[in-house]
Amino acid sequence: MIVDNALYHQGKRVPLGEGDDQSLGAVRVPCAPGDFQWIGVHDPSREELAVIADTFDLHPLAVEDAGDSHQRPKLERYGRTLFLVIKTLWYVDEEDAVETGEINMFVGRDFVVTVRHGQGIDLAASRRDLEDRAQVLEHGPMAVLYAVCDRVVDEYERVGAALEIDVDEVEESVFSPARTDDSTRIYVLKREIAEVRRAVMPLREPMRKFATAADDEITAETATYFRDVADHLQRVSEVVDNLDGLLSSAFDAHLARISVQQNEDMRKISAGAALIVVPTLIAGIYGMNFDHMPELHWAYGYPFALLLMVGVSLGLFAWFKKSGWL
Amino acid sequence: MIVDNALYHQGKRVPLGEGDDQSLGAVRVPCAPGDFQWIGVHDPSREELAVIADTFDLHPLAVEDAGDSHQRPKLERYGRTLFLVIKTLWYVDEEDAVETGEINMFVGRDFVVTVRHGQGIDLAASRRDLEDRAQVLEHGPMAVLYAVCDRVVDEYERVGAALEIDVDEVEESVFSPARTDDSTRIYVLKREIAEVRRAVMPLREPMRKFATAADDEITAETATYFRDVADHLQRVSEVVDNLDGLLSSAFDAHLARISVQQNEDMRKISAGAALIVVPTLIAGIYGMNFDHMPELHWAYGYPFALLLMVGVSLGLFAWFKKSGWL
Amino acid sequence: MIVDNALYHQGKRVPLGEGDDQSLGAVRVPCAPGDFQWIGVHDPSREELAVIADTFDLHPLAVEDAGDSHQRPKLERYGRTLFLVIKTLWYVDEEDAVETGEINMFVGRDFVVTVRHGQGIDLAASRRDLEDRAQVLEHGPMAVLYAVCDRVVDEYERVGAALEIDVDEVEESVFSPARTDDSTRIYVLKREIAEVRRAVMPLREPMRKFATAADDEITAETATYFRDVADHLQRVSEVVDNLDGLLSSAFDAHLARISVQQNEDMRKISAGAALIVVPTLIAGIYGMNFDHMPELHWAYGYPFALLLMVGVSLGLFAWFKKSGWL
Amino acid sequence: MIVDNALYHQGKRVPLGEGDDQSLGAVRVPCAPGDFQWIGVHDPSREELAVIADTFDLHPLAVEDAGDSHQRPKLERYGRTLFLVIKTLWYVDEEDAVETGEINMFVGRDFVVTVRHGQGIDLAASRRDLEDRAQVLEHGPMAVLYAVCDRVVDEYERVGAALEIDVDEVEESVFSPARTDDSTRIYVLKREIAEVRRAVMPLREPMRKFATAADDEITAETATYFRDVADHLQRVSEVVDNLDGLLSSAFDAHLARISVQQNEDMRKISAGAALIVVPTLIAGIYGMNFDHMPELHWAYGYPFALLLMVGVSLGLFAWFKKSGWL
Amino acid sequence: MIVDNALYHQGKRVPLGEGDDQSLGAVRVPCAPGDFQWIGVHDPSREELAVIADTFDLHPLAVEDAGDSHQRPKLERYGRTLFLVIKTLWYVDEEDAVETGEINMFVGRDFVVTVRHGQGIDLAASRRDLEDRAQVLEHGPMAVLYAVCDRVVDEYERVGAALEIDVDEVEESVFSPARTDDSTRIYVLKREIAEVRRAVMPLREPMRKFATAADDEITAETATYFRDVADHLQRVSEVVDNLDGLLSSAFDAHLARISVQQNEDMRKISAGAALIVVPTLIAGIYGMNFDHMPELHWAYGYPFALLLMVGVSLGLFAWFKKSGWL
């Protein structure tokens, strides 16, 4: 679906069409120096992509990648066109889960093509924000690239913050006196952290390249802005590494607590058993058939025996309480 | 077994023979610039290899390696001839297992020799596909090298996807409430992942070399295609690394669940034991031989005792149920 | 809150104002060569930062970072101004906890702006110390940078030393014969060590840069001093790495001890059970109703039975003691 | 013990003496260009080494190392003489154990000194093989170096293959239904793998140096052969790394199985206990002394009680069988 | 305490004083080219260090480090003076413990200052050894540096060898059939290995620098000797890495054995319990009060019952023995 196609002339939008008109993909406007065209598509069909590829003369290998939503983040240069794949991440509160999407960008001298797969990051909003800042748009296609990366990485940081809260909850649950089976929760979190890492790690090298102006298209001033993005990316990556380490430690502690609890249970059970077994011995004794057992003939022999059982059990109970077995 | 031997002239096949004729190995056609000869062998005998080595003037060390099917992936240059060893992988659904084979390729200025060991990847199909695309074949021997690598790495991705499904199944089994012994399955998967890794990891450096046109034989345009292969290889390697990490976490969770289950079992058993032992105590008490035990002489003493036993057991049962022990 | 703003002329303080006057931020004094102005702020409002940024012409991205107290340590150059983010750490004895704050520094040719977030390190004291050493202040803004880094890293070492004591305590507790649940303590310490590492690790690269005079502003003599800071930083990082490894080993030992203790408990319980169950068997035997059981008719049959029970129990007790089960 | 000392003239042996004559060490023949002298010693005494060192003008530090059989593999250059330490490994089937020895080689322009410690690799055989291939010997001392390295690394591969079989056996044992204590076997194998690694790892750098002709003595042609050795070394190193990983996974699986077995044992024991305890309760009930217990007066009360016990036990047995506890 | 101060002229000692005279620190002799002065101090006071620093014009930062005995090993250059910190290690047999000390060395063109903290390595002995080898001393201050490093690293090797014996003992204890709690011993050894590593690892870089003659003061001939030291250092580091890995594996095996033993104990206990519980059931049966129980009236009913109990127990015992539970 082609979402938008506009020309940006001296930082101002010159609309070329709006929304879902397939013919829009083939609109190519001759650009004055400094101007550029930005076309945005969402979950495009093969045909839409083919039209756009043809219009902007994109490399077939990159177009093939752009049509597939399971790429890894990467930056590639085909002639004068940059091709950037970036994973989008967002946190869905209702499910405590991290969702992923993908944005592919073709950045040429005078055009930007953004191909979005999945939900999560609203590029239309990014575009509107950007259109309000003419002085940024004047920097041309790289400004769009920066704006999108900045937006995506900001979302990464929100995801990181949400995961930090989740890990805090797991921690609390592990160390609470309640008996909890936290291994499932820890596993799910580890899996999500791995997902974040797979989005973040491969993106660091492209951002570093932009930040150090290693690519010719980047000016020193633009590089400063990408340095900021790279720095945030580094922060996210350190946050998730740290969370991963904490989860591993929390899991170990969880295992230790299971063992400790089993030990406590065993001791409680044994103490409880003693409270039954000892009176049973007493009952057994007074069930013996000796001719001469004086207690049997006492008037209060039976209550005595019952009291003896209760007394011994109470004594044992007190002793176990004192020694921490009950 | 010599499978095929053909000359490619301006991207078109000029057949030199077909199939299992041992003399084919010695056929060497003088090539015009841009043309090349492609000979394919499958599980060759020492003699067949010797003939071919002689015909194409291959280095004895490389020929020795090509005759052995337990090489590690590597790229070596002997004079003007490249020698590439690549492991083939494919997933056999019936056995849930990854199988491995090997392809050795000698790539010269005007010839390609492909030596295949084991099943799995059908090079004849790759050759037919390639023959349909004359414009690719025109790029000469490196096009064949690319086509084979692309085919093999595509199969790696399929293997990776199949392993992802297997890991999902293990995950489900580990976290299902059923009692399962998943350690064998996890071990087997880890072993298969290690096998994939041993095929993928050493191949990355050769593909990177091609992708960056570090070798003189590679033009910038060809390099772009190898960059695509290298990227897919990187993706496979990240997938299996991720799966390996997930399996380790799943195994840890499995261990934790075993402990938790043992704990639950122990508590269930103890609670069950209490249901027997407490009535036994009561029976013991009424088995005592005191002269004065009023209950013994009650008309309904016996049913009273039985009811007492049942009542106490039911009380315990309710209490254990409530406290989660049963 | 603007804390202080002063001019340093030939190593001597020329006060420009003192304390919490917001207008101070806009005071900018023309500096003779070698002189510099140092303004210190603590938990500044957006407005205060904006005034200062305007006064000293600071880059907006750096100012944005400086207003946020959750940065990672980093060094960045914006034109001729260095921007350094450094985490402060200190150990609160009452809570056995490591606290963190942050200092942001802008260092230009003739000015220093220090922005402090959180408590812990008293920059006012550092400033007074420095003002007493005119020959250091004469080195200009980099002397201030050095003084702050040195102060902060000294505090890191104190934190490292405090953690060493904590780890020693954990160690003692793990290996004491007492039953202790050390997993929580170990987890908390690991978490704190991770915090220290996150402050220390990213700071090493900036300090190394200063120490090798990789930045033009640094003279060889100043570099020597930063080499000292970098060396201390390295020491802290080795200390916490070592502590982390020790904690992991201590945790493993803790797990082993839990298992060993469970085993001992199980044996103790079993031995204890035997002391009850064997006499119960004896009582059961003399409770049998055979017509001909000579012991039942002995005058001392009953005491004999009791003595037999006690004797067997004592024998078992001695045997269990000897074999280490009790 | 001096084993052999010969001159090689145009690839042909000119014997200078045979076997254990101590004076042989001092024999030094003037060599024509291309010729070289090869002296082999086995477990030499200090005196023998001193004589040889004197004869060939070897560096005292290298000679000291050569006299000691606990060196790590390394390559060092003393002036124009190369000094290579290489560990020999071989697998003793009877003991399922890896044994180690050591070969030290001094390689000069026109001489080779090989100093062998321990058993395992028969250099005399290598020498005879080499003497049969005059065209190799013509390459001079580096050919000897290659021949020895090739021989030693071939043996590494045999050791690797033997360890693979051992790991397969351990795997089978771990996953067999039988109760096995595999931890000792796994430990011993891990220890042997560590030994192999200590022989292989440090040797990779010297072989890489030879393979890339980084040393002036190596011609491109010779380098090709060393590349083959380096490749085999790499293969061994990957094999043992893989085995080490498999052993770790197998050990984890072993631990999991111990836990699972303990759990099964516990359930079996509990079920068995129930089969005894429930009849005991029944016996206890009919041992009560109530005046009015009709069953006691039944003609077939006793057989009824016994049948009740057996019936209840059989019922429990069936139930436990069905639910997998027995 | 100033231990010694001497001038070495053409490799021969010209004594300037002996032992604990504080004024010795200020003695500075003009040196002819090739001569040098060597002053040795042990646990110096601040004043002694200040005098020496003044006499030899040492950098205040280095002097501050030298006065503190908790430095990490490092090499620094202050102008023309090298400053080397090296940790000394030695093994105290009585306590099975590794002790640490520290040597700081200032090496200038014509002087060496050695500052020793703690016991363990006797520098006076090293000095006497060196004084006996005039041809070494003629190499000037670097010869002293070499001699001290060589001495210290030799001691590292002795420590490594002692730790190897300790690890062997632990191994034997872990795999002995006896029940041992080896976790404490393993922990202590791991801690000591970490200590060795902290002494060895940071020293490798300085030694490598000397060995490759990266520092201008080092001649190629001297470099050869430092290469020997660097090689020994490498050997120690590999030994302790290997020991650390073995200890981790041994610990894992220890854990596995605890589990196996617990399992065996549980089975033994259960079998033992069965030997008591089954006769108790028999006693219970003959304690029932049925009117018609023929055995009760047999003349030999009682012995029959006792024999039945013993017989059943013996049968169970044999069965448990056979199935490995007892």
From TrEMBL, chains A, B, C, D, E:
Bilayer topology term: Multi-pass membrane protein
Transmembrane domains' residue ranges: 269-288, 300-320
Pfam families given in the database record: CorA (PF01544)
Gene3D superfamilies cross-referenced by the UniProt entry: CorA soluble domain-like, Magnesium transport protein CorA, transmembrane region
Location in the cell: Cell membrane; Membrane
Organism field: Nocardioides renjunii
Function: Mediates influx of magnesium ions.
CDD domains the record matches: MtCorA-like
Superkingdom of origin organism: Bacteria
Family assignment from sequence similarity: Belongs to the CorA metal ion transporter (MIT) (TC 1.A.35) family.
Alphabetized UniProt keyword annotations: Cell membrane, Ion transport, Magnesium, Membrane, Transmembrane, Transmembrane helix, Transport
NCBIfam families the UniProt entry points to: corA
InterPro entries listed in its UniProt record: CorA_cytoplasmic_dom, CorA_TM1_TM2, Mg/Co-transport_prot_CorA, MgTranspt_CorA/ZnTranspt_ZntB
Keyword Isomerase: no
Protein name per its UniProtKB record: Magnesium transport protein CorA
